Amino acid sequence: MADKIVLSVGTKRGLFLLESNKRRQRWEIKGPFLKGWSINHAMIDTRGKPRLHVAGWNFTYANATFTADVNGKKFTGCENPPVPPKLTEKQAAQAKEWGISTAERTWLIHPGPAKEKKVLYAGTAPAGLFRSEDRGKSWQPVSGLNEHPSREDWGPGAGGMCLHSFQIDPHDSQKMYAAISAAGAFRTDDGGDSWKPINDMVEGYVGAPEESGVGT
C-alpha cells in the first residue's frame, strides 16, 4: 500500500489535490491549480515516477492538456493538444436542436499499457481517440476509430458527442475498448488499427438509423 494517497479533483474553477497517508483519516486540500481552467478530467499515472495528466478547457484558450510532477506540481501545457474531429452537418443540426454543447474538449486521459510507460490515450468531444507516445507532449489521432465507417451515424449525447470511457485489457494490450455518447461501445483486437461496434442487444439513441450498429 502506498505511503501517500493523492486524489485529483477537477472542478470548473481549477484542479484540487487531496492528500492523505495510508490510513486516510485526515486529508489536506491543495489548490486550486490551473486557475481559470475548467478541468474535465485529471489522473495520476503511477507507471514509474508519478505524474499528473490533466484535461482542461477555457473560454479564451479552449481545449488543452497539461502534465506535472505530483510532488513539484509545476504544470506544463501541451503545445499541440488533441484536435477533435468535426461534427457532420447532421450531427451539428441535432446538437443545435437539442441545445447540446459542441465545444471541443479533451474528455479523458488514460494510461497506456503497463510496459509502454510513455504511452497515453485521450478521448475527446466531438468524439475522437488520440494516442501520445511521449507522456502527453504530443498527440496523434487513432484513425481506425476516428474514421470508422459508422461515424456518420453517431449522434451527440447530452454532454456532447464525446468519447467518455476507455479501457485496455490488462492481459492483452492489443485489446482495447472505447465508449462514445451517443454511438455505444467499440472494441479493437489489433492495438487500435481496426474497431468493431459491440452494441448487440443495446438500444440505439433516439433517431439512430436502423441496423447501423450504434448504441447509446
Q: Helix coverage percent of residues?
A: under 10%
Which stretches are poorly predicted, pLDDT < 50 over at least 5 residues?
none
**Span between termini:** 38 Å
Helix tally? 2
How many distinct beta strands?
15
**C-alpha geometry:** globular
What fraction of residues sit in β-strands? Answer: 35-45%
Class inferred from helices and paired strands: mainly beta
Question: What is the secondary structure topology, with strand pairs?
Answer:
Elements: E1 4-11, E2 14-21, E3 28-33, E4 38-45, E5 51-58, E6 62-69, E7 76-77, H1 89-98, E8 105-111, E9 120-125, E10 128-132, E11 140-141, H2 143-146, E12 162-168, E13 176-181, E14 184-188, E15 196-197
Antiparallel strand pairs: 1-2, 2-3, 4-5, 5-6, 6-7, 8-9, 9-10, 10-11, 12-13, 13-14, 14-15
